[in-house]
Design a protein that fits this description.
Elements (H helix, E strand, L loop, with lengths): L2 E10 L2 E12 L4 E5 L4 H4 L1 H12 L7 E7 L11 H11 L11 E3 L2 E2 L5 E2 L4 H11 L3 E5 H7 L7 E4 L2 H9 L29 H13 L3 E4 L6 H6 L10 H11 L16 E2 L7 H5 L9 H4 L4 E4 L7 H5 L2 H6 L1 E6 L2 E6 L3 E6 L17 H9 L4 H5 L3 E4 L5 H5 L6 H19 L11 H8 L4 H12 L4 H17 L7 H9 L8
Parallel strand pairs: 3-4, 5-8, 8-9, 10-15, 10-16, 11-12, 12-15
Antiparallel strand pairs: 1-2, 2-4, 6-7, 13-14
Helix pairs in contact: 2-3, 4-5, 7-17, 7-20, 18-20, 19-21, 20-21
Length: 503
Amino acid sequence: MSIAHCPSATPWGVNAHPVEIEADVQGGLPRFDLVGLASTAVKESRERVRTAIRNTGFTLEPRAVTVNLAPAELPKGSNHLDLGIACALLAAHGKLPPEALQDRLICGELGLDGSVRPVRGALAIAERSREVGVRELVLPRADSSLAAEIEGVRAVGVASLAEAVGHLTGTEIVVPARQRGLAVPTRKMTDFGEIRGQAAAKRALEIAAAGAHNLLFCGPPGAGKTMLARSMPSLLPELSRDEAIEVTKIHSMTAEAVPEGLIRQRPFRSPHSDTSVPGLVGGGLTPRPGEVSLAHRGVLFLDELPQFRRSALENLRQPLEDGCVSIVRGQVQVTFPCRFALIAAMNPCPCGHHGDPRKDCRCGEEGRRRYRERLSGPLLDRIDMHLQIPAVAAADLRGPAGESSEAVRERVIAARECQRLRYGIAGGVNSEMPGAASLAMLEQKNPVGRLLRRAYEQLGLSMRSLTKVTRVARTLADLDRSSSVRMEHVKEALQYRQPTASP
């Protein structure tokens, strides 16, 4: 009997940490000890592994078995290690050559019948296997095509423990998986041409799509706020390959269906107003990405914004400001990316008819004040554009259809290409424009700089609000194919700072 080593990995956040599985088999009373800061789910793998080995046809002598999961300080809270533990045990019992496990990374969940079931985080595990330099990644067959999307990774998918042993011993070689490419788009999107009227709101959406800006709609029920927001994805360009890997890696960490190939459409997430703080921004005992991270590189739509829990909304501050969420569990920090465009919608008052010429508001000033106070000033300050939209006029309902999403998307793509060239990185957008560039625009001695300084003083803008104005103005210039920001761009950008929902 001897010690066997099997490299594996376990997901943590949106990445994966390498885990060295060590199996020691010695004489003595039969027992099975699993050490190395394993969670309950991992400790249960003892029964799954032993039963799967037996049902695969292997007979292990009753011995004292110790399995160590290194490093000891790293929490292991998933089922990814089953297949690696089984292979290490077989090697320690002399049923598998120990050298067959060298230079390979093995992970997967085992069924009691020896089948290998899919796991979360195949892309993150594939990236980790490339970083540690193993020659082959052995994982569940259902995850192998997705893992093969990482360049330089030889991903071998197995359907059972027996197939994995056959491949490792060379008696039944499994052909590596091939890249599947981008997944076929499945989400039906609302087209701009289906929306009647609301020209100002459509203009604001085009700007938000071009620069990935945050946008707040305030208007009466039935004005089309939700329909407008749901049309936003139809204006956005498809994800680049690097962005698709980034987004798919996040989605593959959740309990949702594993993507069949790289995600192609930009995410559109619309959580219910009763969503908890961990559900919105991420968290849990084993940290999982929340809605803000699932909306990464896409759109997060919050309908009826004041109805969300105050604690959940206040926890949006860091994601909106930094583009990431940091969660600390014990002495380990997990960071989830969350660069998204926030589209929010709200009524002007609890009944929704304040300012509506067709219906009287029954809320009173005190009711309207309490309603507006559900949204804090610091949160509203982080929203680039605020727009009051009216009810749709009867004449607009009879009018011709507007521009299609395809026509608007062409302008959005052209504007985003300007931003990519300006910032020199894929996915670089004006909503992330460095503060130094905004400050330089403010310090200009031309009419644009003077207008910005005057607006800052007379409108009582915060420095953050003024930065939002300069970023929106830069996007307006890109939509006009202008190399410089002009006066009309700043004036239009200032119009979107009207206090639609100020407390």
